Amino acid sequence: MSKKELGLALLLVVIGGITAALNPLFLSGVNLLNMANLIGLFGIFAIGQGLIIITGGIDLSVGSMFALLGVVLVDLLVNFELFWPLAVLATIGIGLALGLLHGLLVTRLKLQPFVVTLCGLLIYRGIARYYTQDSTSGFGYAGDIDTVSWLASGRSFGIPNPFIIMVVVAIIMAVVLHRTVFGRYLYAVGRNEEAARHSGINTDAVITGAYLLGGALAGLAGVLLVFYTSSVSPSSFGSFYELYAIAAAVLGGCSLRGGEGSILGIVLGTVLLQILQNLVNILGIPSSLNFAVMGGVILLGVIADQQLGQRKQRIQLSRAQGHAPAE
Amino acid sequence: MAPLLELEGIGKTYPGVRALDGVSLHLDRGEILGLIGENGAGKSTLMKVLGGVVPPSEGTLRIDGQVQESWDVPAATRAGIAFVHQELSLFDNLDVAGNVLFGREPLRGGLLRLVDRRATREKVAPILQRLGADFTPDTPVAELSIAQRQLVEIARALAAEARIIILDEPTSSLTLSETARLLTVVKELRADGVGLIYITHRLGEIVDCADRVVCLRDGKMVGALRREDIAHGTMIRLMIGRELRSLYAPPANPPGEGGLAVRGLVTTAFPGSAVDLHIRPGEILGLAGLVGAGRTSLARTLFGIDLPLAGEVRLDGKPLTLRGPRDAVAAGIYLAPEDRKKAGLVLDMPITENVTLASAPDYTRGGLMVHRLERSAAEKQRQGLRIKAPNCSVRAGTLSGGNQQKVVLGKWLSMAPRVILFDEPTRGIDVGAKGEIYALMRALSDRGVAILMISSDMEEVLGVSDRIVVMHEGRISGGLDRAGFSEQAVLRLAIGSRHEAEEAHA
Amino acid sequence: MQRRSLLAAPAAIALASWPRMGAAQEKRSLAFVVNVSADFWTICRRGIEKANREHPDFAMEMIVPGQASAAEQRRIIDELLARKVAGIAISPINPANSTETLNRVASQAILFTSDSDAPNSNRLVYIGTDNVAAGREAGKQMKKALPQGGKAMLFVGTMDADNARERVQGIREELQGSEINIIDIRTDESDIARAKRNVEDTLARYSDINLLTGLWAYNTPQIYQAVKGAGREGKVKIVGFDEDALTLRGIADGTIESTVVQQPFEFGYQSMVGMVKVLNGDKSFIPANKQIIIPTRIIDKSNVADFQKQMRDLLRGA
C-alpha cells in the first residue's frame, strides 16, 4: 500500500467514522451491504477507466455505452428471448468491440482520446435512443431471467454478487497491472510513450489493450447495472457515470497526465464516492446537495494530495541541494 | 573608469546548502569573460543572482561603480543585463520580429494598443543585419534552426540595448560551423563595447574567444586565468582540481568482420540521397556533420523509428527488415538518443524499471514479473556503470545528465548489444562524467559491439572515434582514418561541397 | 445586382420550399414535445398515432428531448417554429419561467399544453391530469394503505418540476389531519440507479418506515425492487404513480398497494384532435377555464390484470 492509498484509506475511515458517529445506522449490515453492491457496480468500470487513464487517455463514453449496451441486452433477453449467457456475452462483446474501436482510433489515426470518446458519448446515446424510439425498456414483461438476474443482482453468502465480481475483477486487474509485462508497459506508455517506443515496446498495442479492457469492463458493469435497475431509459441511463469513474480514479491516485495509479487506489476511490452518496441519505442531508458534497470532498482530497506532494518535493529538493549545491 | 559590473563577496545560502561562497568577479566593457565549472559548481545560481531572480545572502553588486541596494529582475533589466539561455525561450508561434521585441512592441491605434507590425519589422531588420542573420524579421520562429534561434535570442538582447550579455551554454545545440559563426558575432559584440559572460562546457570556444576565465567549483571561485594562460589543460585542472587523461583510448583489438552494413539507404529526410555506411564490431565510428545534415535521421532509420524509402541494412551479413524499434531491438541494434529525457528514459520510473524496460519479458516467471530478478539486473548495471545513486529505486529523473546517460546504457547493456547508436552521447554532461562515458563506449567496442557515435562536439569526434565519416545534406561526404584526423578536414567535409560550389560560382 | 439575384433565386426557392412543400400537399404538421423519454410517452405516442390515422392529411410527430432540460426543450421549439409547424402540444419542463418562449409559440402556431400546465402563457388549452387532484388520489390510497397512520417517504426525480410539486401538494392536502407523517422527499436527478439507492438507503436508515411513494414513473419500480431486495415486502407499503411494467407486476404480486395512473393515450389523442379542430376553426370544445382534465385511474389488485394486458398491447404497438 503506497502512501497515497494509505492517505485515502485514512480519509475513508475519518469520513466513515464521522458519519457513523452522527448516525450509527451507517454501519448497519443492511446499509453496508447496499453500499457494497453499489461499490461493486461502480468499481468495475472505474477500474477500466483507471487503466485507460494510466495510459494517459480517458474514456468519456462509458455512460452512453451503458445506455446502448443496456437497451441491447434488454432487447436480446426480452424480445429475442436469447439464452441469457449468449445475451450477456454479446453485450460484453459489444463493449469490447467499442473499446477496440476507441483504441484503434487513438493509436492508428492519432486522434485525441478525449475527442474520440466524446464522440462516442454522443453517438452511443443517440443510437440507444433511436434504437428504442426513446422508450424505456425493462424486464417488466420478461419471462425467465431469474438465474441471470440472481447472478447480477443477488447475493452469495450474504454478500452482493456485484461486489464479489468487482473483487475478482480487481484482483485480476491488480495482477495484470502490477505484475505482468503488459502492466509495466501501461505505466511506461503513460509516463513517456516515446521512451517506451524507443525501448522496442509496441505502444500502439499496449494502448489499444487498455481501451479493450476498459470496453470489456464497461460491458460487464453495464450488464450488472441493467439488472440493478431492471429498466433502461435510453436518454438518462448511465448519464454522467463516466465522471464518477474518472472521479474515483483521480481520487485513487491516477493522474490525468497518465502513468500513475493503482487498482487498490481506484477501488478505494470508488468506495469513498459511494460513501459520500450514502451519507447524504443516511444523515438526511437534502438530496440536492448530493453533488456539492461529492465535488467538495474530491476537491479537498486533491488539494491535500497536491500539497503533500509539493512538500515531499521540497524536502527532496533541499536534500538534493545538500548533495550537490546549486544548479 | 569603474568596471561595468563588479561582484564582491557574493554568497548564497539555501537551507543547509552553501550554493555560493564569497564569489568576486568583475567585467569590463568590451570584454568576454569565460565562466567555467562543472555541473553543480554554482554557475547557474550565480547567474540567477546576476539576473535578480535570486537575492544573494551576502555581498555587494556594483554597476558602473554604483552599489546596487535593491537588486531584482526589473533592476537587472534596467542595468542592461540580458540572458541568452541554454534552453531556448522563444515563442514558436510568433515571427522573429515579434520575439525580438516581445513586451516592447511599438504600438499604434491609441487605446486599442495595436501592434505596429511595420515599425516592428523596421526596428528589427537592422539588428538582424548586424548579426549577419540569413533570415528576415517576419520569418516564423518555428521555421528556424536552433542556431538561427540562438541569433534571435541575441537580437532580443541587443534590442533591449543590453550592455551585459550572459550566454549560458549557447552552443550546446549548435554544429561546428554554426558555433564558429556565433563566436564571430560574440567577438563583434565585444568590439562594440558590450561586456559578455560566456558559460560553456566546450573549452575550445573559451580558448577561441575569452579574454579572461574564471572558474567556480563547489560554489567558490577557485581561480582565474589571463588570456595568455587559457588552455584546455589549465582550465580542466581548475574545474576538476586534477589532470584529465587524454580522451582517446585505442581499441584493444583490430575491428572484426561483419557488423552493420548499410547500402543505398534513403531516409525520409533526404529522399534524394542514399547512404552507404559500415560500422564494424570493435570500432567506434564517429559521425560528424552539421545539424540537419541527416545524421539523426539516419540513426532513427537504423533504429526503425523512421522507415527507409530504399536501401538495405545487413547485420553480420544477414539482411534486416526494420519496421519499428521492436525489430531493431530484437536484432540487437540499440539507440542512445540525443534527447535522453524524452526518448531514452521514463524519468518518473526508478532506475530498475528503466534498466529492464526493453527486456521486461526476460524477468518473468509464469507470465508475472519477478522484482527480485529485475533488481539484481539493475544493481549489476548500477555497479558496473558506476551510476551515482544510493540504490536502484531512485527515480531516473533525479539523476544528473551523466548518470541518466548511464541508465540508458544500462538498459541496453543488460541485453545483448550488437550495435549501439549514440546520438550526441555527452550533450549536457560535465567534463568528469564525459570521460566515463567515453571509457564505457570503448569498453563496449572492445567487447565486440559496433558503435556509431553522432557528435557535434569537435573534441569528442576527434578524440574518441577510431574512424570518422562526415555527412553533408543527407549523404556521406567523406571518411577519415585516425591518421587523417583534423578539425579542418572534418569541417571541410561537413560544409565542403557547398563551400566549393560557392567558390566556383564566385 | 443582376448577378446577385440570379444566385439568390435558387437559394430563396430552396429555403421557401421547405415548409411550403407540406402546404402544397395539404400536409400541415403538428408536434407533441414531451419532457423526457419514458414508457408513459410511448403510450401517448399511440394516442397520437390513432389521431393521425383519423386525420391522415396531417403529419403528426412526437419529439423527445435528449435531456430533460428547459434549454433543450426551447431549442426544439425554436426548430419547430423555424420549420413552421401548425401546432405544438408541449409538456413544459419549467412552465413558470418559459412563459415567454411559450407565448412566442402561441403567436406563431397553435399552442396546447399537456401533462404539465403553464397557466400564465397564452396556451389555448391544457389537456392533461390535474396533478394536485392526482396527488389527492394518491393521498387517499396512502391513507387506505396505512389506516393507523405511520411514516412515509416520497421519491421523485427533481422537485423543480411542477408535476412533482403539485403531486406533493395534493398528497399533503389529503394527508392533512391524518396520522401519516411524511419524513422527507428524496430526489435522484433522473438517475435511475440513484433512485434505487435512495430507497435502499431509506430502508437502511429508517427501520420503522411504513410507506414509500414514488412520484415519477420510474420511482415506483425502483421502490418495488429495493423493498423486495431488503425482504421487507408487506411490512413497507408502496403507493405509486404511473404504469411501469414492474409497478403493475408489483401490484399483481401484492407488494404494491396501488398506483395512480394518468391516461397519456388520451393526452396524445385529444391534443392532436383538438389542434386539428382549432385549425379547422372549431374552438367550441375548449371550456371557459381552458383546462380539459383527463381523470386519473386507480389500478390495484382488482383491475391490474386487465390493465397489464391493455398496456402490453399498447406498448407493443397495436
In short, what is this structure?
The complex is a heterotrimer of chains A (327), B (506) and C (318). With 506 residues, chain B is of the alpha/beta class.
Layout of SSEs?
The complex is a heterotrimer of chains A (327), B (506) and C (318).
Chain A: H1 3-22, H2 29-54, H3 62-79, H4 84-107, H5 113-131, E1 137-138, H6 146-153, E2 155-156, E3 159-160, H7 161-179, H8 181-191, H9 193-198, H10 203-229, E4 231-232, H11 241-251, H12 263-282, H13 290-323
Antiparallel strand pairs in A: 1-4, 2-3
Chain B: E1 5-14, E2 17-27, E3 32-36, H1 43-50, E4 58-63, E5 66-67, H2 73-78, E6 81-84, H3 96-100, E7 107-108, E8 114-115, H4 117-130, H5 146-159, E9 164-168, H6 176-191, E10 195-199, H7 203-209, E11 212-217, E12 220-226, H8 232-240, E13 260-266, E14 275-279, E15 284-289, H9 295-302, E16 310-315, E17 318-320, H10 325-331, E18 333-336, H11 340-344, H12 351-356, E19 364-365, E20 368-369, H13 371-384, H14 401-413, E21 419-423, H15 431-446, E22 450-454, H16 458-464, E23 467-472, E24 475-481, H17 487-505
Parallel strand pairs in B: 3-10, 3-11, 6-9, 9-10, 15-22, 15-23, 18-21, 21-22
Antiparallel strand pairs in B: 1-2, 1-4, 4-5, 7-8, 11-12, 13-14, 13-16, 16-17, 19-20, 23-24
Chain C: H1 2-24, E1 28-33, H2 39-54, E2 58-63, H3 70-82, E3 87-90, H4 99-108, E4 110-114, E5 125-128, H5 131-145, E6 150-156, H6 162-175, E7 180-187, H7 192-205, E8 211-214, H8 219-229, E9 237-241, H9 245-252, E10 258-261, H10 264-279, E11 291-293, E12 297-300, H11 304-316
Parallel strand pairs in C: 1-2, 1-3, 3-4, 4-5, 5-11, 6-7, 6-8, 8-9, 9-10
Antiparallel strand pairs in C: 10-12
Helix pairs in contact in C: 2-10, 5-6, 7-8, 9-11
Overall shape of chain C: it is elongated
How much of the sequence of chain A is in beta strands?
under 5%
> H/E series of chain C, N to C?
HEHEHEHEEHEHEHEHEHEHEEH
CATH class of the largest domain in chain C: Alpha Beta
Number of domains of chain C: 2
Strand % of chain C is 15-25%
* Secondary-structure-derived class of chain C: alpha/beta
The major sheet of chain A is characterized as: 2 strands, antiparallel
Biggest β-sheet: strands ordered side by side in the sheet of chain A: 1-4
Which parts of chain A are unreliable, with pLDDT below 50 for 5 consecutive residues or more? 321-327
- Largest interface by residue count? A-C, 40 and 49 residues
| Helicity level of chain A | over 70%
